[in-house]
Amino acid sequence: MMIFGGILAIFTAYSPNGGSFITFYSSNYTSERYTEFEERNLTGDVFLEEVWAYEDYFAFLFIPEDQNATANYYFSFEIKENGTTLESAEKIHYEEVSTRAPIIMRVPKKPDTSYEIEALIEDEDGVEVHKSKTRIGPQNQEP
C-alpha cells in the first residue's frame, strides 16, 4: 500500500490459477476501512487487475501483463452499488490497450456502501482473456 499526493494506491498480486483473497486498506480521507473480495476465473494471464481508492471514487484498472504488448480488446462490465446495477455495457471496443493505456473504470464512492464490478475482456477474435468479479465495501460487510 502506498500513498501518493493524497491518493491511496493498492497493489495486489494474483495467483496465475486464480483464487480468492481479501485485501484491507483504509481511505486517506476518512477512518472508513474497506475490504476487497475477489473471485477470479481466468482463461489466460493476459490482464492484471488493480484497484485504486481516491477521495470520492474507486478506479479499477485492467492492465496487460505483457509490458511490450499493445492490442485491441472488447470490454464488458456490470457495476453494482449495494446490489443494484449502476451501469453495464457489452463489448466496448478499446484500441491500443497497453500498460501505458490500460482499461480504466471509475466508480463513485459513498460511505458505508458496497460495490461490485464484473468484468469480461475479449480479444478481437472473441477469446476471453480476463474474467473477474470484485466486491468492495466497508470492513463490517460480508462478501
Q: Helix and strand layout, with pairings?
A:
Layout: E1 2-4, E2 7-9, E3 19-26, E4 33-40, E5 47-53, E6 57-64, E7 71-81, E8 84-97, E9 103-108, E10 115-123, E11 128-138
Antiparallel strand pairs: 1-2, 2-5, 3-4, 4-11, 5-6, 6-9, 7-8, 7-10, 10-11
Structure description:
Residues 1-37 have low confidence and may be disordered. Helices cover 0% and strands 62% of the residues. It has a six-stranded antiparallel β-sheet, with no helix packed on it. The chain has strands at residues 2-4, 7-9, 19-26, 33-40, 47-53, 57-64, 71-81, 84-97, 103-108, 115-123, 128-138. It starts with a strand and ends in a 5-residue tail after the last strand. The protein has one domain (2-138): Immunoglobulins (Immunoglobulin-like, Sandwich), CATH 2.60.40.10.
Short description:
This protein is mainly beta and 143 residues long.
Q: Count of helical segments? A: 0
Give a quick account of the main beta sheet: strands, pairing sense, barrel closure. 6 strands, antiparallel
Rg (C-alpha, Å): 15 Å
- State the domain count: 1
Which structural class fits the helix and strand makeup?
mainly beta
Per CATH, the architecture is Sandwich
Amount of beta strand: over 45%
User: What would CATH call the homologous superfamily?
Assistant: Immunoglobulins
> What is the fold named in CATH at topology level?
Immunoglobulin-like
Q: Gap between N and C termini, in Å?
A: 22 Å
Kindly report the average pLDDT value.
74
CATH C-level class: Mainly Beta
Instruction: Output the strand order for the largest sheet.
Output: 3-4-11-10-7-8
Low-confidence stretches: 1-37
Number of strands: 11
